[in-house]
Amino acid sequence: MSANDTYRSIDAVWRIESPRLIAGLARIVRDVGLAEELAQDALVIALEQWPSSGVPDHPGAWLMTTAKRRAIDLLRRKKLHQRKEVELTREIEAQLEMVTPDPDAWADDQVGDDLLRLMFVACHPVLSTEARVALTLRLLGGLTTVEIARAYLVPEPTIAQRIVRAKRTLSDKQVPFEVPRGAELTARLSSVLEVIYLVFNEGYSATVGDDWMRPALCEDALRLGRVLAELSPHEPEVHGLVALMEIQASRANARTGPTGEPILLFEQDRGHWDQLLIRRGLSALDRAEKLGGSQGLYTLQAAIAACHARAAAATDTDWPRIATLYGALAQLTLSPIVELNRAVALGMAFGPAAGLALVDALTAEPSLVNYHLLPSVRGDLLAKLLRFDEARIEFERAASLTRNAREQTLLLERAATCARSSASIPE
User: Fold this and answer.
1) What is the pTM of this model?
2) What is the 3 state secondary structure string of the chain?
3) What is the CA radius of gyration of the chain?
4) Which tens digits make up the pLDDT trace of 9-54?
5) Cβ partners under 8 Å of residue 45, min gap 6
6) Among residues 413, 200, 160, which one has the least CA distance to residue 298?
7) Alpha carbon 204 to chain centroid, angstroms
8) What is the mean pLDDT of residues 391-397?
9) Distance between CA atoms of 179 and 213, rounded to whole angstroms?
């Protein structure tokens, strides 16, 4: 194997093993920042040794063994001035019993427990939402600071500062490396799910930049969701979120054209939808509902996505059911954005006038004043009512509000279409 092949193998191993490695180390040293440093030290040693010695048969266990030895060296240096030599030797010997893990047990229950603990730590509410997202992608997604910055179109120093501050905050607040229990578990789980959901959404519909989608972020979120589902098999909302992401991701190949231009849901070639992901999503949805989570935040959204997935053609979509599901979601969240989506469903189920009435009621909502999808939806409903001049104005306003270049182009094209349609109507 050439040196380049070895480096590519090391990179692949690191992306797979680093979350488990950091999780296992954090359990030992009780410090996420220190655990990441120790893991990085092990990676450096691998980069020095593997090109000549070759990638070991069990690279994850090799990295953990190396990192644990570094941890023991660190403990020895820190405690040398505090304890007698005999006491220190006894402690080191106890630690050494864990140094060489059984390669066949590298994916055992303890590793799973460690990953779950790391998820709850990285997504702790003591951190800002932006910090939680960055730290989760760093520790559990295996992304570099550069990759996270590129994905979110944020300067690399900004991401680096968020991660450093997040680790410092976790240390200063002495956040325990554990899975919470009882009522705290529910609250903390919602934070974990929110972070995964935010990562997926940014990948599915990028808020800024030149690309309509960032598939790598969708893949990272899906992977984290699937891991969480395995670690929390009895939590319905976990399966609800996985169902939602699987079904949404199934449309990825149909959402953009040859040059990356957006293709809206009603115009997509459903033959390009990934049926395997749809089946996985419907299975996860069924599991969530059987666990009693049919009225959960993510399960309701997954049920809406399932209505689209089950329709062979756009005209076959069960819009009355979608409108009902959005009604239940609106009661649960009290979200104006959900109400905007319900307006779309009402317009499809009962005619554009029904949808427009709800949209007009939302125009005074302060949180939607600069939300580009409000004028976009209003423009679509007005166009269906043949009120093209008004629709054009709405699409132009939506284009001025979005920060995504692809979406802006699409909205301006729709405005131009309305202008042509208006001109063709005889006076």
Assistant:
1) 0.78
2) CCHHHHHHHHHHHHHHHHHHHHHHHHHHHCCHHHHHHHHHHHHHHHHHHHHHHCCCCCHHHHHHHHHHHHHHHHHHHHHCCCCCHHHHHHHHHHHHCCCCCCHHHCCCHHHHHHHHHHHHHHCCCCCCHHHHHHHHHHHCCCCCHHHHHHHHCCCHHHHHHHHHHHHHHHHHCCCCCCCCCHHHHHHHHHHHHHHHHHHHHHHHCCCEECCCCCHHHHHHHHHHHHHHHHHCCCCHHHHHHHHHHHHHHCCHHHCECCCCCECCHHHCCHHHCCHHHHHHHHHHHHHHHHCCCCCCHHHHHHHHHHHHHHCCCHHHCCHHHHHHHHHHHHHHHCCHHHHHHHHHHHHHHHCHHHHHHHHHHHCCCHHHCCCCHHHHHHHHHHHHCCCHHHHHHHHHHHHHHCEEHHHHHHHHHHHHHHHHHHHHCCC
3) 25
4) 888 888 888 888 998 898 888 888 899 999 999 999 999 999 888 8
5) 66
6) 200
7) 9
8) 98
9) 33
Q: Is residue 68 within 8 Å of 98, Cβ to Cβ?
A: yes
139: tokens are: 């520790």
Q: Nearest to residue 15, comparing CAs of 164, 117, 138?
A: 138
Domain boundaries, the chain: 3-102, 370-427
The answer to whether the beta carbons of residues 312 and 336 sit under 8 Å apart is: no
Distance, CA of 408 to CA of 427 (rounded, Å): 31
Interval 395-414: pLDDT, tens:
999 999 998 899 999 999 99
Q: In the chain, pLDDT over 70 holds for what percent of residues?
A: 91
Q: 71-100, pLDDT tens digit by residue?
A: 888 777 766 655 555 555 555 555 545 444
